[in-house]
Every structure is written in structure tokens, then in C-alpha cells.
Amino acid sequence: MAFGIKRKDLEEWKYRIDAGEIAFLTHYWLDDRFPGCKTVTKVGCKDLDRLAKWGQQYGLKREWIDLRKDGYSHFDLLGEKQKQILAAEGIHEKLIK
Questions:
Q1: What percent of the chain has pLDDT over 90?
Q2: What is the DSSP secondary structure assignment for residue 53, as one 8-state letter?
Q3: What are the b/e assignments for 7-45, b being 16+ CB within 10 Å?
Q4: Which of 5, 35, 49, 62 could form a disulfide with 27 if both were Cys (CB 3.0 to 4.6 A apart)?
Q5: Over the stretch 14-49, which tens digit does the pLDDT of each residue have?
């Protein structure tokens, strides 16, 4: 279950994806399959090759991309991997919000 997403943040994420950027969106999220995880970061890009190459540097596999027909395909980052990647990208404050 996703919650805590502001419309402005979602629209900005989609705008950045549409512009061909690597875009990050962090929000609260609960799923019984992932106990202990309270947030998820969606990392998207319209250019799937660019997104896959970006993910590769963090050990993410291309087949882990959530392919979306609406054009907002993305990786889902959870737990320690999420913290590690956000810190490496210099945007760990997204978890503090």
C-alpha cells in the first residue's frame, strides 16, 4: 500500500522522466512481503538503456525494472540497498522526510 505521496512530487517525478532524466521518488509504502521496509524509492527514466546502465553500477539487474505501459518504468529500491544508493547519489535526505 502506497501513501504519503504529494501530487506535486509525483508530477515532478513524471516530468523528469519525460525529460529523459534519472528521477527519484520516495514515499511511504507497506507490504507484508517486505517486513521492516516502510519506504520505497522509485527510480525511473524513459530511456530504459540509460536506466539499466545506471542501475548496473549499484548491482541492479535490468530484469528488475518494473516495465510500465504508461512510460514510467522504474526500479523499486527498498531497505539497506535503498539507503546505500540514496546516500551514494547524495539524496539520502529523501529518507529523512
A1: 70
A2: H
A3: eeeeeebbebbeeeebbbbbbebeeeeeeeeebbbbbbb
A4: 5
A5: 999 999 999 999 988 777 888 888 889 999 999 999
